[in-house]
Amino acid sequence: MDPMTSAPVALISRSETERAGTPLLVLLHGYGSNEQDLMGLLRLLPEEFTYLSVRAPLPAGPGYSWFPLNQDIDYSLDAVEASVQALWQFLAPQLQQHSSLSLLGFSQGMAMATSLARYRREAITAVVGLSGFVVQAPDSQVFDDAKLKADPLPLFWGRDVADPVITPQKVEYTMGWVQQHAKLTHHTYPQIQHSVCAEELADVSAFLRAHVLQQAK
Questions:
Q1: CATH code for the structural domain at 10-213
Q2: Which of 128, 90, 93, 106 is nearest to 9 (CA)?
């Protein structure tokens, strides 16, 4: 079975009887990781959410990836678009029982989270991007950046300016993109390299409370 079209492996924080009416936060892991990775963050995030952590479809090293990368973390836009559309097919049926949909992505997962918002802006309440980037998508027939310019996305972007993984070119492009398409909350965290820290997750929690939980009241 094609991994891009089969239902992904996922973990969810609530039983089916406890999910109705809760805001959904989808967790998208980084390259070479898996769906268990980001579930460890839940104890530092707001308890009001239902958390859904999804495994990427393609085997990569010790884990999985959302789309193939080369040494310079370059990628094919076609592969990104296909992965985003497959992820949306999985998520869309689940939205009926939740009050909102937000996304949290680490590294390559941030590329996926922001790409999904470019694909289905009307469905996404907010995005959290940790140590990641936004994909360059010139002339994409899948992503609708014009919709985001008209209705900018609440976006948290946390990173270390000395991140050794995300290249300066990708940081530069991401900075330009978020300034035009997002209501940006941007924090830097010295010494975390390509990871997360408790201070950052406290800021993420504050962002989610302000842009998702407070907006729902």
A1: 3.40.50.1820
A2: 90
